[in-house]
Write a structure and sequence with these properties.
The protein is mainly β. It has 2 domains: 51 residues, no CATH class; 75 residues, OB fold (Dihydrolipoamide Acetyltransferase, E2P) (Beta Barrel), CATH 2.40.50.840. It has 1 helix and 10 strands. It has a 5-stranded mixed barrel. A 3-stranded antiparallel sheet has the order 4-3-5. The structure holds zinc ion. The site of zinc ion has 8 residues, from loops.
Length: 151
């Protein structure tokens, strides 16, 4: 016996198997460790290319625009304005333990857009309003990340 079925349209044999996958990410953050050190200090950093001047958030160790590795760390003010937002009701499985949450896209005064959770009720939000990017502790995991809140 095999989990093989026939495609109704072409009558091709199809292997249909269902199993749960666990994906584990191991990604080097050596070149952007300053970003994580910054979160520990309550600061959010971006990188700016010394060659072409482009600013990146999340930080980039190598400029995607001109390929230069001469980048500098820039502490972000956190000051910005709300561009758009949405409430997430249907979550990816790995986020299923969270209550419904609101994700916002904001533009920092430095000119970069940041997508992050916003700690606010959706009824309180209006595009154009001032918001602030801050370091937050994600619960229940307990790790530091960044998120928006009302200014
Ligand atoms: Zn560049």
């Amino acid at each position: 016996m095999f989990p093989i079925v026939e495609d109704r349209k072409y009558r091709h044999k199809l292997w249909v198997d269902v199993r749960e996958l666990c994906v584990k990410y191991i990604i080097s953050v050596e070149q952007v460790k300053r970003f994580f050190e910054g979160l520990s200090e309550g600061k959010v950093y971006a990188t700016r290319c010394r060659k072409c001047g482009e600013m990146y958030f999340p930080p980039q160790a190598i400029c995607p625009r001109c390929r230069s590795s001469e980048v500098e760390w820039v502490e972000l003010s956190g000051e910005g304005k709300l561009l758009t937002y949405t409430k997430i009701y249907v979550k990816p499985k790995s986020f299923s333990h969270y209550s419904d949450y609101v994700v916002a896209v904001g533009r920092l005064d430095e000119g970069v857009n940041v997508t992050a959770w916003i700690d606010a009720k959706i009824e309180e939000l209006k595009p154009g309003m001032r918001i602030k990017l801050v370091v937050v502790k994600r619960k229940p995991e307990g790790y530091l990340t960044y998120g928006w809140r009302r200014a």
